Amino acid sequence: MMNALARIARIRMDEDGSMAIETAFVAPVLLVMALGGFEASAMVARQTELQSAAAEAAAVVRAVAPEDAAARNTVRDIVATSLCGKTTPTVSDGKARCGTVTVDVDPIYRCGTATDYITNADGCGSGTRYKFIKIDITDTYSPIWAEWGVGSAVSYDVNRTVQVG
């Protein structure tokens, strides 16, 4: 009996392998934190990229107000090309698309002191009408953890409204 108690005491005092056990507990947590930090920084970077593209479009609109559909399409194509990189954007329904990115540039109007925008220039009647160009950029980012069933894709919707008249 004494021999068994001495053996148990010796096992309790043995520290061999404790580092492996601690690492087995801590490593997965650190790995998940690193992956989460990487994905969060990728999401913030994409949001910044979309905001920069919208600011670029607003600057182009302020520099040369697009008076017709062809000029608005040029602005749309500039933004889409900026966001799509080597992929050539496709155009359908007046919107430029590549991958998950959609870019739309439309005229909108505001009547007098109203706070709401309308899409029809004749909606103001004979009153004062202000013209704006609305730039809409949408995108979707799927973080890696969404593939494992944790969370879902992140949708971005960046809008700029620039007064041109």
- Percent of residues in helical segments? 40-55%
Helix and strand element order: HHHEEEEHE
Strand order of the largest sheet: 1-2-3-4-5
Q: What proportion of the residues form beta strands (DSSP E)?
A: 15-25%
Number of helices, where a helix is a run of at least 4 consecutive DSSP H or I residues? 4
Number of strands: 5
Largest sheet: 5 strands, antiparallel
Poorly predicted runs are none
The chain-level mean pLDDT equals 88
User: How large, in whole angstroms, is the Cα Rg?
Assistant: 28 Å
Structural class: alpha+beta
- Count up the domains: 1
InterPro entries: TadE-like_dom
Domain TadE-like: 17-58
Organism: Aurantiacibacter rhizosphaerae
Pfam families: TadE (PF07811)
Please describe what this structure looks like.
It holds the Pfam family TadE. This is TadE-like domain-containing protein. InterPro entries: TadE-like_dom (IPR012495). The protein has one domain (13-163). It has helices at residues 2-13, 18-63, 69-84, 144-147; strands at 90-92, 95-98, 101-111, 129-141, 154-163. It has 165 residues and is an alpha+beta fold.
List keywords for this structure.
alpha+beta; 5 strands; 165 residues; TadE-like domain-containing protein; TadE-like_dom
